[in-house]
Batch of 3 targets.
Target 1
Amino acid sequence: MKGDDYKDIYPILVDYYAKKGDDVNKKKYLAIGQELYPENTYWVQSQIAEAGDDKAKLFAKYQELIKENPQSYELAVDYGVELFNYVYNQNKPADYEVKLTELGNALKNAIAIDANQAYPNFIMSQHISNQIYDMQQVYNGLKGTKPEDVKKKQDLNKQIEARFEELYLYSNNAHQIYAKNAELKPGEKANFRIVTNNMIDYYKMKKNTEKIKELESKLTAMK
């Protein structure tokens, strides 16, 4: 059965059989609903919800759904946000290094799907900013004066500068998109200010006082 009169029936059936623990019928009506109404985001949301609080299952489900829906911006950015919250939790996860790479790739994928969206650029800027902070902490802890210690600091400083270039790239992308929107929501305004401050930090690293003043004036003008 297809038509506007029936579009809400299949989500109800999927929910009903899910609550009964009837996986066969749940999958049956999920498949039918997806075929008849592929634009309904419920089908994706219901599959993600199945993972519950198990992060391994959740990430695996996201990867599976993204593979099936490679042009879905919503899926791509939601996966990036889930990874960001997991990586930068109060307690560093055991697979921190692995998930760092996956996070960067997930956000790049979301940006590639829709380059006109500020949010994944903003999240990427926060990801890079966190990495710069960690690298600076390591740098500040290097106290040795031997040639190998000096070289280690020099190499790390180059890495930090390279990350600042990335920080500027994604912050500037988000900044330009936010600047074109005359009706930013409160959360978007807050993000706008954050990426502008990221750009100020970049120009402080570059010792470019003219750009710093320009951006600080923009910050002051923001309402």
Note: The first helix runs from residue 9 to 20.
Target 2
Amino acid sequence: MLPRFSYLAHEIWRGNTLWRGCMRAALVGIQLDGCVIDLGSGRKQEYISYFNRGERFSLTSIDQKGTPHSPPTDLERDAIPFSNQTVDAVLMMNILEHLFNYPHAVKEAARVMRPGAILVGVVPFFCHYHEGPRDFFRYTHEALIRIFANAGFSGALGKEIIPLGMGPISVGFHCLHLAFPKNVRKRFRLFFIALLPFVLFADTMIRQFSPLLIRDFPLGYRFLFVKK
């Protein structure tokens, strides 16, 4: 999935990364309604605004530190504080890589979801080590399909996994950009934004010769699964 230049430039202007722009492009248009839980976010995140939200939309954030509407919950060992088959959608945004016992969290998500409920998430792939408080894994699309299939999920019309990014030049730009602290990235944001069109053009040209480059050099993945 190719993000708009405006999404990427906006995130770089704010001192964020290409990954954030790719996330936005991948989440726009997905419909959330009813009881929605966001696992590991800690608080309401701005990515919620990327989704289409229905009239019955109600969000509960669940985190190990606790939130105003949920007790502290260790996603690697605790039960999610919802009854069986009561949740309409689950979000797992940049959380799986921080869980060593990720099967427990995925099975708990499946337990609380109604049949037909959706699970939406993103995970990084080409990314620096980032504590949260720990950083354990990077997942391929093949691993994600098996993990969620084993927990009782099915794909969403063959588009359960979407690689995010533009190609190898963007991956290099992303890694270089991440090498600087956020305050430095913001100080030189005009420079990075000026480089961006050349980076995207280079990847576009390379993709003419190798169309699978986005698959082979993803910044990460967006996944969308349905509870059976």
Note: Strands lie at 31-32, 35-39, 52-53, 58-62, 87-93, 113-124, 153-155, 161-164, 220-227.
Target 3
Amino acid sequence: MCNGSLRQVFNLLTDKDIGQSEQDLLQHPQVNEARRWFLSAGTGAVVALAATGLPFSARAAISLPIHERKIKLVNRQTGETLETIYFQDGAYLEEPMTQINRLMRDHHSGAVTKIDPNLLDLLVKVEALLDRKGEITVTSAYRTARTNRRLRSEGAAKQSMHVKGQAVDIRMPGIHLKALRDLATALRAGGVGYYPRSNFVHLDTGNIRYW
């Protein structure tokens, strides 16, 4: 599929009222063709997607469920697992968000903060574009300022987005780390860090930057 075809598909996505016709849209033959091509092309598809020149909202339109958003998280440090619907009918749900905040707490101190809902949405978008519904392994999420200072010797940023509840370090079982990095980079939704030696990708909802 050429970039022109990709542009046609994503124009189709953004020209329609996704909130009212999501199911019809996702069954459209051109959209299904794009999804099949993306999955078969792997990392090359990510490059082509970025090369379309479409704004982030258009590139990601297919990937964010409108009516219900579900996520499955596994905290590698504590062994806790949570599978929950955190967004439904246009609103983030208080109890599931509280559970997510706890799972993504600073495991060094036990401190909890409110995790940025946009960060969860980013994870759901990545999974949807990968046509994947599975667990997301969280290696690090919220950190207190004190914990972050302790981790500076291990490479933690001085002004870390983890301290704000806007960052998470993850891996997705069955997905190559580099492919995960490349897809997140193409979405241009925030910061993306690649740590192959430690086996995780950092994602945050701050300014667009890569390392």
Note: The chain has two domains: 3-63, 68-210.
